[in-house]
Design goal:
The chain is of the alpha+beta class. The chain has helices at residues 4-9, 14-22, 43-53, 62-68, 118-127, 133-142, 148-155, 161-168, 174-187, 226-241, 251-256, 258-270; strands spanning 2-3, 26-30, 33-36, 58-60, 79-84, 94-99, 107-110, 113-116, 194-199, 202-208, 213-218, 245-250.
Amino acid sequence: MVGHRQLLEAGVSREAIRGRVAGGRLHVLHRGVYAVGHLAVSPLGTDVAAVLACGGRAMLSHASAAAVWGLVPRRAGPVAVTVVGSRRRPRPGIALRHTEDVAVDDVRRIHGIRVTAPDRTLLDLAAIGSPELQDAVDAARLRRLFARDALLERAAGRPGARALRAALGGELTRSEGERRFLQIVRRADLPAPETNVFVEGHEVDAVWRAQWLVVELDGYAHHSDRGAFERDRVRDARLQGAGYRVLRTTWRQIQERPEAVAARIAGLLAMR
């Protein structure tokens, strides 16, 4: 992708640009934005072209930024771009938004393209009531891309603050999560498990040995980085290889769907 101004700054004259467009060496994607040599434009190339088309103070934002960060799947449709300062005319294929100002830390570069930072992206999704907000929050939380309290502080008084708070939910400490989990077990009149014990050389959160069932409680800080995620899956595979069934439940399920958690455990205990 290349912009008209970039070509001029590189010493390509306007006449030469017109000649290359006519000869098929440059293909117009937006006014003043060209694909070089071919029209087999990748999704990221489409994003780059949209940002170039909107000027030097433009940035990929909202769902398009979330997709580039890997927080949500890429969807068909217009590319979301936010422009700082002066308003620009709408362009086909671009969902254009404007903002008066943007903090330096709110803009990052990915593959050379200006993109809103993860926390700013979540704020933007919340502000427009995006149905993808919850998925984006969950994915960003797993990768530790934001600090919850700081994000809530920034959201205060902004559009979408309530939606963002709901998507973030409450954080449980490990001890609080375990206490609520055991409370769910007792209320469902299920047999009490052993907790925080070693099984096949691995410490597990809860185990019913006679029923060959292990339950792990996800959602604490030590479960939220990529390395821990991979280690957990290796441990699950080893436990399963030894004959145990492994059920993972999250802090959100413990808080919001305790009956469903109890029903899943009861069903698995009844199988052995």
